[in-house]
Amino acid sequence: MAAKLGANVAMISSVGDDNFGEMFLKEFKKENVNIECMHIEAGISTGVAQILVNKEGENCIIIVKGANGRLTTEHVQQKCADVIKKAKVVMFQLEIDLNVTLTSIKFCKENGCFTIFNPAPAVSNLSDDFLKYTTLLCCNETEAEILSGLQVDSPEKRQGAIKGLLQKGPEYVVLTLGSQGAMFAQKGGSIQHVVPDQSVVPDKIVDTT
């Protein structure tokens, strides 16, 4: 979407030498996404995700990492170093090796990037070091509970969890709440609750992942 809006975008990931990998690379090129940092892993299938959506519009995602699990720190820091050093914003999630993600987010932060971390799929006992190098954390309720160690089943508890997450390193936290909208907070500022437009018709909800 950022590329469609005119931003210079590069993708760092790994795909297999299969039809899915070929399709993704063609689509990235079509949308003017820089793919010089994409790694093609021979003999391995490209990672896929099956998205299941219930009638309330809530989703459940089943992920098979495939080639994503073969991306290495060496590839990121050597082949992609020039791209990273020119970047203003870099976004991370957890569909590649955790150690690769952690060393990469640290590398980006140390090179002056605004780092966005979406800790999905949720991982238990995730190191707080991920948050230490995060500028903006964007998480759902499950991920917030895992990262903060606190429940988020009420407005008051959500505020407590957000405050706890800010203390771990991020300058900003976005907590997504599905049909209830999202909460946003900046370190040293107040916590805002953004409520979705009530004109949205429930039976017309579709997944936007």
From TrEMBL:
Cellular component terms per the entry's GO annotation: cytosol
Q: Which GO terms describe its biological process?
A: D-ribose metabolic process
A Gene Ontology molecular function term of the record = ribokinase activity
Q: Which UniProt keywords apply?
A: ATP-binding, Carbohydrate metabolism, Kinase, Magnesium, Metal-binding, Nucleotide-binding, Potassium, Transferase
SUPFAM superfamilies attached to this UniProt entry: Ribokinase-like
The Carbohydrate kinase PfkB domain sits at 2-209
* Protein name, entry field: Carbohydrate kinase PfkB domain-containing protein
Species this chain originates from: Clytia hemisphaerica
Instruction: Tell me the organism's taxonomic lineage.
Output: Eukaryota, Metazoa, Cnidaria, Hydrozoa, Hydroidolina
